[in-house]
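dumping this here before i forget
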Amino acid sequence: MKHAFFAAFAALLAVGCGPAEPIDITLPTQICVTTQHHGLPVADCTIYVKWNADSFPGYDQPPGYFDAVFKTDKNARGCIKPVPEGRHWLVAIGYDSLYYPHDVMGNLPVTISLDGTVKLDTIIYVTEKH
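structure:
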């Protein structure tokens, strides 16, 4: 009887002493952009994000190369959150029906830091593909 009690007690302790569940802390970080071409908004641009990049990733990378993606809306504005701390590259690809050639692109390096820029609201200027 004693052995059964200790075995049950040991089993109960083993279940209660498992690894702690990871704590999911959402960062208060955010990047918002407006895409513009010749001073006018360009709606529906796709913004590709490469986290912690030291250099410009280029326009010819496949979408899977990037770490995140978001789109600008009909007002040419889009946001992504939360954003990890670090230096990141934003690459914008869009279409401007007002100017030829219609395909436009732009890029912007940004730095997000909890003790610096936590939320960034900026403009990505796009231009014709050459």
